Amino acid sequence: MANKLAVLVTLLALSLGPAASQGQGSNICFNGWLRLPSSGTCPRGSRPDFRTRQRVPAPTGEGLSFGYYNNNNSYCPQAERIVKDAVKKAVDQNPGIGAGLIRLFFHDCFVRGCDGSVLLTATASGNSDTEREGPPNKDSLRGFEVIDAAKAAIEAACPGIVSCADIVAFAARDASSVLSNGRVNVPTPAGRLDGRESFANETDQLPGPFSNLTALEDSFWAKGLSPDEMVTLSGAHTIGHAKCQFFSSRFADMDPTLAAKLKAQCNGNDGTFVDQDDVTPNVLDSQYYKNVIDKKVLFDSDAALTNSTDTVTQVTDNANSAGAWERKFEKAMESMGKIGVKVRGSSGAEIRKVCSRVNN
Ligand code: HEM
Ligand SMILES: *[C@@H]1O[C@H](CO)[C@@H](O)[C@H](O)[C@H]1NC(C)=O
Ligand SMILES: *[C@@H]1O[C@H](CO)[C@@H](O)[C@H](O)[C@H]1NC(C)=O
Ligand SMILES: *[C@@H]1O[C@H](CO)[C@@H](O)[C@H](O)[C@H]1NC(C)=O
Ligand SMILES: *[C@@H]1O[C@H](CO)[C@@H](O)[C@H](O)[C@H]1NC(C)=O
């Protein structure tokens, strides 16, 4: 069903382009991933916005610990080094992969918790319409081959010990370190187990580029993360790339010089990718917040951070006081890594042999 939805999203995005951007009102579907003119109807399979206004307590990460793979019940002392080497090698060749790995962690954690469900192509129930096929992920997530390479090397060294969910968390930590030139060091306890299910239609728990501030805050609260953490984590949009379809409706709201440049780069093709941060595209730094203030960000969801006094205060602090954002980002990433974790004793969890498939 969500396969069809993904196709619809693409078709709609391609066929609507300019008409959608000129429309006065608009209709937002799939929690902010699809923008239609006000006359449009959300595709079938796209649940009505926005259901989850529920505030969930902050994740505790009970069962996770530092140096988890150095102890005798889960002994693989090489694991973190192997991931780090794989990430460093990949990011040295292409910094964009580092951005992909950080995003992979976010998309894993927000859907069914940090359980590697984002990596699956086939599940215990036989579902193949997995998270990877969902609108936020399809033709967009990258870095899977780095996870697979690290997993293969780890299985060779210590079979059956290290989960894919932990590898995703380590990889995001290591990519953050490399892309920040060592300035961002995310504390990363481990002990996550891998889930056995994954559904494309659940990826609407991720807020989208057309989400307004309320929807962003609600989506984070639904995972136990605060509006401050939402603002902090959005700073990851200081690296990596994005498709024109997600911002071509809002050139008029951007800094005119940047808008002209992006318009030329997109050249009417909504599938083209552009850098998210025009100033320091490959450095994980606080430049994003300056861009928010200067109207040099791509998405409505980025610009929405100027829409309340609380978020504006955060944005201004992050933009102006050196090191403040980096420390907050380290903490917020650590919290994100605790969302919905499955640990020893959880049911329906395992340590996968291959990250894209459940065991047996
Ligand atoms: C606050 C709500 C968020 C929204 C609405 C959002 C939306 C998006 C969108 C639409 C893209 C472009 C995807 C494409 O065009 O293929 C993107 C890219 C990206 N996002 Fe987010 N995102 C959010 C939060 C986050 C968070 C919390 C993180 C990580 C901590 C993150 C990290 C990234 C990265 C690194 C990229 C670039 C990926 C690449 O180059 O492969 N985002 N995001
Ligand atoms: C692991 O077990 C060995 C011997 O059984 C012991 O010497 C060592 O201290 C243990 N290490 C940890 C981290 O528990
Ligand atoms: C999501 O998809 C799965 C499998 O395709 C289906 O069983 C489930 O009912 C769907 N959930 C919703 C809320 O549509
Ligand atoms: C924010 O978005 C949600 C979901 O699309 C919508 O229901 C709500 O009316 C919007 N709020 C504002 C202030 O525009
Ligand atoms: C900011 O809020 C106003 C009113 O609540 C709304 O009309 C506008 O679209 C919002 N802008 C963004 C970028 O969310």
From TrEMBL:
Binding residues annotated for Ca(2+) 2, in chain numbering: T238, D277, T280, D285
Required co-factors: Ca(2+); heme b
Highest taxon above the source species: Eukaryota
Disulphide bridges, residue numbers: C76-C158, C109-C114, C164-C355, C244-C266
Active site per database record: H107 (proton acceptor)
Binding positions for heme b per the UniProt entry: H237
Pfam families documented for this protein: peroxidase
Cofactor note: Binds 2 calcium ions per subunit.
GO cellular component: extracellular region
Signal sequence bounds: 1-21
EC numbers, comma separated: 1.11.1.7
BP-aspect Gene Ontology terms: hydrogen peroxide catabolic process; response to oxidative stress
Enzyme class of the recorded protein, top EC level: oxidoreductase
GO molecular function, one term: lactoperoxidase activity
Reaction(s) catalysed by this chain's protein: 2 a phenolic donor + H2O2 = 2 a phenolic radical donor + 2 H2O
Keyword set, alphabetical order: Calcium, Disulfide bond, Glycoprotein, Heme, Hydrogen peroxide, Iron, Metal-binding, Oxidoreductase, Peroxidase, Secreted, Signal
Site residues (Transition state stabilizer), renumbered to this chain: R103
Sequence positions that bind substrate: P207
Subcellular localization(s) per the UniProt record: Secreted
PANTHER family per UniProt: PEROXIDASE 25-RELATED
Annotated function: Removal of H(2)O(2), oxidation of toxic reductants, biosynthesis and degradation of lignin, suberization, auxin catabolism, response to environmental stresses such as wounding, pathogen attack and oxidative stress.
Protein name as annotated: Peroxidase
Species the sequence originates in: Eragrostis curvula
